[in-house]
Structures are given as structure tokens and as C-alpha cells.
Amino acid sequence: MANGSKRRFPAPWQVQRIEGGFAVADSNGFRLAYIYSPPNHAELGTAAVGHLSEDEARRIARGIARLPELLTKERDG
Length: 77
Description:
Blueprint: E1 14-18, E2 21-25, E3 31-36, H1 41-44, H2 54-65, H3 67-76
Antiparallel strand pairs: 1-2, 2-3
């Protein structure tokens, strides 16, 4: 980045429920990632192929939100 500055995304990161899925935000509320799932995934049947279920989207968001914790353990461990 310009002038040697580093952009920081302070922990803890949090999973936020949004319309159509989930968002991952840093402790300042800056949204870092969006993971979407159709609201009627179970009703879509074969049309849902290629889309995340709500549970899959939530689990992915939780995994992303854990990244700062995991990176700290790796660095310190």
C-alpha cells in the first residue's frame, strides 16, 4: 500500500445476519465478506444446485470470522 501503510481489520471478527445470507465484519463494523444463500433453499429442489444452504453459508461465515484467531495461534505456536 502507499507510503508503507498497512490496512488493518481488527479482531474480533463477527458474523452478522443480513438479508439473503451473512456478512463478516471486523470489530469496527467494516464488512469484509458476504456469503449468500437463497432464503427458500429447501423449497428450490433441484434449482438449489450450485447455491449454498443457509447452514452452509453460516458455517463458511463462521470460518472466515475465525481467521484472525487461527493466524494468531499459528504465529505464536
